Amino acid sequence: MGQPYEVRLVSFRALKEPAHLALHPFGQIPTYEEDGLALFETGAIVLHIGERYAGLLPGDPHARARAIAWVFASVNTVEPPILELVTAKIFEAGKSWAKERLPLVEDRVRERLKQLSAHLGDADWLDSSFNAGDLMMVSVLLRLRSSGLLDEYPNLAAYVARGEARPAYKRAFAAQLAVNTR
Asked: Considering only CA atoms, which of 76, 101, 77 is closest in space to residue 89?
């Protein structure tokens, strides 16, 4: 949004300490603090920033409501099977039943991607222009990059590439990379 911000790194140990739990009761990231307000959950943070600064939420009430619906869809409908896939590949890979489970999980992800792909069609963004819903959806879909599943839906792969090509994304990614390579 072109606003100055500061990144605060949090160790795994610090996530469970009282100071961080006061910001995020589940001991996770991200958290956001501004003028005495502390928020947690990415969607809530994006919506708050969108309400406060122009650019993420459309002015038209119907377009605004659709953008908010896509924020919720990204985290409540599309992300859960993707996280299930991550769990199956990383944490359950060594289990005796993992080989049978993985194709079932991948099929659940494919079903969501098929539905999302059909909605997007040949459009650039989920609605008429980039908004908070696209920001969240691109972030969720990025988790699939290494799986190869996203490549099965060329319009979704191109959608994610458009999201990553945005100047704001490039700036945020560069800032995150700088923090991670300190």
From this structure: 101
